[in-house]
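Q: Structure tokens for this one, please.
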Amino acid sequence: SDALLAALGARLAGRPVKVALARPLMINNSTHRPATIQRIRIGATQEGKITAMAHEGWSGDLPGGKVERAAQPSKLLYAGENRLVTMRLTTLDLPEGNAMRAPGETPGLMALEIAMDEMA
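A: Here is the predicted structure, written as tokens:
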């Protein structure tokens, strides 16, 4: 790995070294936002009152990784009696997934608001 080679180089040189990666290599050597698959179902009365909502999310990461919390906002943003909110993790052989510029709820907020717009 680049970090290991940098550490060995610093030890050999007796001073700090800097790792510089070309832009195309950044995605392979740093964390990224895990892709998500989301399924949203909303039930409402003719007047638009939400009666049921289901938001299921799947994301992928390394073994032992954390699930992307994309479906989390659906528990909090809209009132309604019947809720199903699940988030599942699939193990993938890809670089580690992690937050990028925002917490993991961000992709879920987009999907939820699109579903609300389509229902309206």
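A few notes: The two ends are 50 Å apart (CA to CA). The helical segments are 2-13, 23-29, 105-119.
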